[in-house]
Amino acid sequence: MKITEGYGKVMIDDFEFYGEIKQDKCSKCKYNLVYYDDFDSYFCPNCNSWTESKCSDPTCKYCSNRPETPLTRK
């Protein structure tokens, strides 16, 4: 898996989105976490899992459209 960052975007292989690579590590695999701007949430690209649960607001512009896994195509 190739991960790059530039101009406010992150590219994971051929998957590109607005966000940034963080220094914080995944508690499971110790991979760097990534912030995904569209969903205002952090995830581990190696585990392909969110580090935070969705909020309980059904009208939330971030959580209501968030896919089950971060690296899911829109």
Automatic annotation (TrEMBL):
Q: Which Pfam families match?
A: A2L_zn_ribbon (PF08792)
In which domain of life is the source organism classified?
A: Bacteria
Q: What region holds the Viral late gene transcription factor 3 zinc ribbon domain?
A: 23-50
Note the InterPro entries from the entry. VLTF-3_Zn_ribbon (IPR014900)
Q: What is the recorded name of this protein?
A: Viral late gene transcription factor 3 zinc ribbon domain-containing protein
Instruction: Name the species this protein comes from.
Output: Lysinibacillus capsici
